[in-house]
Design a protein that fits this description.
The structure holds two protein chains of two kinds. Chain A is mostly helical. Chain A has two domains: about 10-70, no CATH class; about 85-330, MetI-like fold (Orthogonal Bundle), CATH 1.10.3720.10. Chain A is about 70% helix and about 0% strand. Chain A is built from 15 helices and two strands. Chain A has helices at about 10-20, 30-70, 85-90, 95-125, 130-140, 145-155, 165-170, 185-195, 200-210, 215-220, 225-240, 240-255, 260-265, 280-290, 295-325, and strands spanning about 70, 80. In chain A, strands 1-2 form a two-stranded antiparallel sheet. In chain A, strand 1 (about 70) and strand 2 form a beta hairpin. By secondary structure, chain B is α/β, with parallel strands linked by helices. In chain B, the strands form four sheets. A five-stranded mixed beta sheet of chain B has the order 2-1-3-13-6. In chain B, helix 14 (about 360-375) packs parallel to helix 15 (about 390-400) and helix 17 runs antiparallel to helix 18 (about 455-485). The N and C termini of chain B lie far apart (about 55 Å). Classes of the chains: A mainly alpha, B alpha/beta. Chains A and B meet through helix 2, helix 6, helix 9, helix 12 and helix 13 of A and helix 1, helix 3, helix 11 and helix 17 of B.
Chain lengths: ~325, ~475
């Protein structure tokens, strides 16, 4: 390998990577080689429990579910190979399309709402000097609530007759909708309920805000920038990588949303009433797998979701490259 | 928001590892495959089946799934009797309602329990996949008379002419009403018993009350979606053919029944309003809808009589049987059953245990325990609906009719319940039980939420249900043909 001269302020990471690669080309004495091999062997031994766990509990199921997606399998009898029939059935099943649409809409509503509100709360929290620790705990505390309990809570808070949300709306003279039965309001209700756990995003954003270099903000102030301009031109770019991270993980979580909606609209205690508006993709997948015993079809659904999330994430990555600022890449 | 795959947000990867974000996605999405990674050695063809002998010695371990032996004195007493019957075997119970996921996993991993306690509407699916054994030889060896059990319960546990589950309990519906509200409007239970739909609709309008645009009294609750089979049968239609092969969800009589039952809600502002008001009630508490005078009448399973009597004995109740349009009592039977998984290691003990649990003598001991407990509390004993006809009759004559506390409306409730128990029907077992049920429930729910008209929704439900039935029956027929060939 030839040595490559690296220069330029935005090539820090590449330079480090190449410098590391360059070391390979230095002549290595036999003793050093043996020592390196021993280190590698020891390292592999130390991480072998994880590797074994990964192979058995993750890699194998991934591959196996790919195989199952090509079979007719009901768990109780052996799978029989049927080629791509399950994928054709996916395309023909209107509920798959409906569940995907529901999931996209939910993710499209919940991700921006979550991030905007989290950012707002993090900014407020950063400015709060007194009792900051208390508020930080208070915001994070709802994350400790079991999701099944959140699903039940949803039905109580959003009850159209005497739920707290409609009581508050009524106080302001606004007639509250039938959140839990009207298909138009079911997803907004679930989105609002998803905010119950935005404390984690708040904590992450608060850490990012605290890491924004004070000297940059001071310089902007000296240059005459007001609070809004400083936030837009300094703070936001400096925390853009964190925002980008949150967009991606929240989108993945939104696409896999299950427990709260399942508990509220499909689970025990509400097993006869269901609402198509809350039929998220993973709920339909679960039903196909464990209620209807169509494990082959459900595996095909899982792979389709995997591909969809891959594509969405890839698009986000491409867009992110243009909009996200990484301090490390700027030589920082 | 929590995902099905169990990962909380924000805990997947560190921000600096953005290029590895796809990895967790891969892991999370396809981790589902884990649950299906082990395909057991379940036979595709019907098993020969173990032999059951009347004088078989009990030994080994007996694992039971889906049953709670400590639920109440009924369960406790019968479990004690059954454990004694399998003396020599060690009984282990995986408590709680049957978790299908857990059951399937245990079968797939070759560690099936020896006995399961399941809903009767699950048996067709299990039986068609040879996951449970036919009970014919077991019951013969243990001297169990199938004729002693209620016919609708037996039909529901029968698949391909073989009995796969021994029924236990028979839930039936009666009409429960607030007598004060009825009287205020000059109505009787005859106006809300379902025999005259126009009378029910008129009573609903009279009983229903609103204030400031909000419902304050539900006049009549037709209990959709779950009671569509009841309303359809009352109108002379079944949701599925007798042989379980043909869905009949788009039958005009089914649609007419659905339109009527939905119309009851629409007359009160729509299902959303009624459900929200219903959900806000203290269903199991002293402030229940009848005690708080916020519900006129509804059809409901007979077990709710015990709740009402427990928590609000002074509630102004009136009871009668639900009736079809001919004025005949009618109820839709559901319940549980004991079944023996085909991969179990101790079928002999399982057989004896299920036989002991459902014997008339065992039920009588349980009834005695319940009657004594009720007497001590000064409360009436309202009977047991065991699924065993002989046991039902003996319990009624021995303990119910002699219960001194059983007076007034509670005696009416018991009479109505026993009559309903004699007039019940059920749906046949099919290899696509869950999909069929989900199809008609979804069909009704789409109408209730205003997404589709009854005709369109039930047409879609029909298509969905029939496709599931066709596929499942075709697989069963193929496996049958294979085993014969």
């Amino acid at each position: 390998m030839e040595n490559t001269s690296v220069s330029g302020p935005a090539a820090g990471l590449r330079a480090r990577r190449d410098r590391a690669a360059d070391t390979v080309d230095f002549p290595v004495r036999p003793g050093q080689r043996r020592a390196r091999r021993r280190h590698v062997r020891n390292a592999l031994l130390f991480i072998s429990p994880w590797i074994l766990g990964f192979l058995i509990f993750t890699a194998w199921p991934i591959l196996y579910s790919g195989y199952l997606s090509l079979t007719d399998y009901d768990v109780l009898t052996d799978p029989s190979f049927i080629g791509f029939d399950n994928y054709e059935a996916l395309a023909a099943d209107p509920k798959v399309a409906m569940a995907l649409q529901n999931t996209f809409i939910f993710a499209a509503m919940s991700v921006p709402t979550n991030i905007v509100l989290s950012l707002g709360l993090a900014v407020l929290l950063q400015r709060t000097i007194r009792a900051r620790g208390f508020f930080r705990t208070a915001f994070y505390l709802p994350n400790m609530t079991p999701p099944v309990a959140v699903g039940v809570l949803l039905l109580l808070l959003f009850n159209g007759h005497n739920g707290l949300v409609n009581d508050v709306l009524e106080f302001f003279g606004i007639p509250g909708p039938a959140w839990t039965t009207d298909p138009t309001w079911v997803k907004p209700g679930l989105v609002l309920m998803s905010l119950w756990t935005l404390g984690a995003s708040v904590i992450i954003l608060l850490a990012a805000l605290n890491n924004v270099p004070r000297d940059l903000l001071d310089a902007a102030r000296v240059d005459g920038a007001g609070p809004v301009r400083r936030f837009v031109s300094v703070t936001l770019p400096m925390i853009s990588s964190t925002l980008f991270f949150l967009v991606i993980v929240n989108t993945i979580a939104g696409m896999q949303s299950f427990t709260e909606a399942y508990t509220a609209y499909f689970g025990a205690g509400n097993d006869t009433y269901s609402n198509d508006a809350a039929l998220f993709y993973v709920i339909y997948l679960f039903r196909q797998a464990f209620e209807f015993l169509n494990m082959g079809f459900a595996s095909a659904m899982a792979w389709l979701l995997f591909l969809i999330i891959m594509v969405i994430t890839a698009v986000q990555m491409v867009v992110g490259r243009r909009m996200v600022f990484y301090q490390g890449e700027d030589g920082g | 928001m929590k995902t099905f795959f169990g990962s909380d947000r924000h805990t997947v990867v560190a921000p600096s590892h953005r290029r590895r974000l796809l990895a967790p996605a891969v892991v999370a999405v396809v981790a589902l495959g884990m649950s299906g990674c082990a395909t057991g050695s379940q036979p595709d063809e019907p098993a020969e089946g173990p032999s059951f002998e009347t004088d078989a010695e009990m030994q080994g371990e007996l694992t039971i799934m889906g049953f709670n032996p400590d639920a109440d004195e009924i369960a406790r007493t019968r479990t004690d009797v059954a454990i004694e019957a399998v003396e020599g075997a060690e009984v282990n119970v995986v408590e709680g309602e049957l978790d299908v996921q857990q059951f399937l996993s245990s079968i797939a991993s070759g560690e099936a329990p020896d006995l399961i306690y399941a809903n009767r509407n699950q048996l067709g699916t299990f039986a068609s996949r040879n996951a449970i054994l036919p009970l014919d030889t077991c019951l013969e060896a243990e001297g169990v008379e199938v004729g002693d059990f209620r016919e609708p319960a037996i039909e529901q546990a029968t698949f391909n002419d073989s009995l796969y589950g021994l029924p236990e309990f028979n839930q039936v519906q009666i009409v429960m009403a607030n007598d004060d509200l009825l009287k205020q409007e000059g109505l009787t239970t005859g106006d809300v018993d379902g025999s005259d739909w126009e009378a029910v609709a008129a009573a609903n309008e009279k009983l229903s009350r609103s204030e400031n645009g909000g419902l304050t009294v539900i006049g009549f609750d037709s209990k959709l979606p779950e009671f569509l089979p009841l309303w359809a049968k009352a109108n002379g239609a079944d949701l599925i053919s007798e042989d379980g092969r043909t869905a009949q969800l788009d039958d005009p009589k089914v649609i007419e029944a659905l339109e009527f039952a939905v119309g009851i809600y629409e007359a009160q502002g729509g299902f959303g309003d009624v459900k929200a008001f219903r959900d806000s009630a203290d269903f199991f508490g002293a402030g229940n809808q009848f005690a708080s005078n916020t519900l006129g009448a509804m059809p409901m399973e007979q077990w709710y009589v015990n709740i009402l009597n427990d928590v609000s004995p002074e509630a102004p109740m009136a009871f009668t049987t639900f009736k079809d349009k001919e004025g005949e009592p009618l109820s839709y039977a559901t319940g549980s059953a004991w079944a023996i998984p085909s991969g179990g290691s101790n079928p002999a003990a399982a057989c004896r245990f299920l036989a002991a649990m459902t014997k008339t003598d065992t039920w009588m001991q349980a009834a005695e325990a319940r009657a004594s407990a009720r007497e001590e509390e000064g409360k009436p004993f309202t009977g047991l609906f065991t699924g065993n006809r002989e046991a039902d009759e003996e319990i009624r004559s021995t303990y119910v009719e002699t219960s001194e506390a059983l007076t007034g409306p509670w005696a009416e409730a018991v009479d109505a319940s026993y009559t309903a128990n004699e007039s019940s029907f059920s749906q046949p077992a099919t290899p696509a039980d869950a999909e069929f049920e989900q199809a008609w429930l979804d069909g009704v729910n789409r109408v209730l939420t205003g997404e589709q008209t009854p005709q369109d929704s039930m047409a879609a439900a029909q298509e969905e249900a029939q496709a599931a039935l066709d596929k499942a029956w075709a697989e069963w027929d193929d496996s049958e043909a294979g085993s014969e060939g």
